[in-house]
Amino acid sequence: MIMKRLISVEKITNMIVVILICLGGADALLNTYLEKDLSLQDGYFGIVRTAVLPENVSLDAEEYGVLSALIEEIYSADKNKSMPILIRDYTDFPEQMTDSFSKRLKSLQQITLEDLTTKNSRKLKLMRQFNLSINYFLVNEQDNPGVEGILGFSRVGFNEGKTQALVHVDEIKRWYVSDGYLVLLEKENEGWKVEKEEMTCIGE
């Protein structure tokens, strides 16, 4: 279950990163990759990363609302809420994603899946627009390859009425390895709630 797996981060390691960020001077390092509008080919790991759009192009308020609700639900059972969480500072979506995963989400509407796929043709930089009760930092895993537990998100796909949302979530581990999930959410009177999740990959 994503709610249990994602909170099992190496908090001591992450605390060191948080301290470095708080001491200042780390923001430039954390944003180095994002400020370069280019594609990066990592020959050793075989990872292809496409360009990230500039800061003036970002998620809309509804997408931040979905991601905020998802993060709050993930960490609702975590008693140590004084520890800031780490969020990858750009959106990403696995190229290997196939319909086989989405078909297991029985109530998923086709238009929601199509919206997810269309929006994720490019990566976007995330801003500090999350509405969270937990303190957080936006970080880049390429500048912090030894840190575990960074949460990564795709852009959010919606149905026409924006009552259903679909997002890909991954827990980034060391050296860019990650566990991935497709998460389906439904909008209820009290806000967005997770309806179902489907694992898409298991990091080693």
Q: In short, what is this structure?
A:
The protein is built from seven helices and eleven strands. The protein is of the alpha+beta class and about 200 residues long. The two termini are about 15 Å apart.
Walk me through what this model shows.
With 204 residues, the protein is α+β, with helices and mostly antiparallel strands. It is globular. The strands form four sheets. Strands 7, 8, 9, 10 and 11 form a five-stranded antiparallel β-sheet that branches. Strands 1-2 form a two-stranded antiparallel sheet. It has a two-stranded parallel sheet with strand order 3-5. It has one domain. The longest helix has 14 residues. The protein starts with a helix and ends with a strand. Helices cover 25% and strands 27% of the residues.
Give the topology, please.
Elements: H1 2-5, H2 11-22, H3 27-30, H4 32-35, E1 40-42, E2 47-49, E3 52-53, H5 61-74, E4 85-88, H6 99-102, H7 110-119, E5 123-124, E6 136-139, E7 150-153, E8 157-158, E9 164-172, E10 178-188, E11 191-201
Parallel strand pairs: 3-5, 4-6
Antiparallel strand pairs: 1-2, 7-9, 8-9, 9-10, 10-11
Strand content range: 25-35%
Mean pLDDT across residues: 75
Unreliable residue runs = 7-13, 24-50
Q: What is the helix/strand order?
A: HHHHEEEHEHHEEEEEEE
Distance between the termini: 17 Å
Helix content: 25-40%
Work out the count of structural domains. Answer: 1
